[in-house]
Amino acid sequence: MPQTKRYIGTIEKIYRRNYEDIGMFFWVEGIRSAVPAATIEQCIYAFFRFVGVEDYNIESTMATYSKMKKELYEAAKKNR
What we know:
The chain is mainly α. The chain has helices at about 20-35, 40-50, 60-80. About 60% of the residues lie in helices and about 0% in strands.
């Protein structure tokens, strides 16, 4: 069995998501780390503009982001 990287345990649940959710999550996290004043909503709009998607539900996407952020915090607490 191959050896896994240590940080994989922290973000294990995130890897089970589809690639759109993973891309959106890390896009938002990247923008927010560079520009802390940016809101989650602004970052999500920028993500959809970047990938060229015009028909999306912002409320649903924000809920998905919040769930993924909570999963990340829970995994980090568990793996301390």
